[in-house]
Design a protein that fits this description.
With about 210 residues, this protein is α/β, with parallel strands linked by helices. It has one domain (about 25-175). The chain contains 3 helices and 8 strands. A 5-stranded mixed beta barrel has the order 2-4-5-8-6.
Amino acid sequence: MWLGVWQIQRGLQKKQIQRHFMQNQQPPAKRLNTLQPITQAQNYKNVLLEGYFDNAHSFLLDNKVYDHRIGYEVLTPFYVKNKRSPILVNRGWMPQGPSRKHKPFIPPVLGDRSIQGVLFWPEETFHFPEIIEQSWPKRIQALTPSFLEKNHFTPFVLIMEKPLGTLFKANWQPFHFPATRHYAYALQWFLFSCILLISLVRINFQK
């Protein structure tokens, strides 16, 4: 019964996140270079950035699936004008290729750019220990606040609204499971509880 209640609470949280996401998606997009301060109240805010990519130091967020194909989400540092710390930008999904031995080629984006996307504050999640790679781009298993802090990035990332280039696909979602999935799980737990209760009463009545 407790697990059923917990799933309902998770579903309500997802509905709140979805509502907050839709509200912050309303145009016009804010120009991040002039926003002060930048707090978690701007989570899912639609913003514009002006600056340049650090093409030499991208990360590959591993085990991401798009259209039943395994691949990576490409994360590249972006240096914003008037800001000190670089922002990690999710440029979209690209396929892994025939073998994990060979990392995909990430096309560089040269010069100053104006890009648009959604601000996102990641949360700490369970993940396997990272295998430290020496060569770039580096594969990572999870995008967490501790990872951003360790690598001197801002505590938020930017999810690009429209990936640059045809190699990338927009694959990011604010959460993996919708609220309705949690409600379905809650119903299952309640049904299991009822079956267990009926079985318990029947067994004791027979005794």
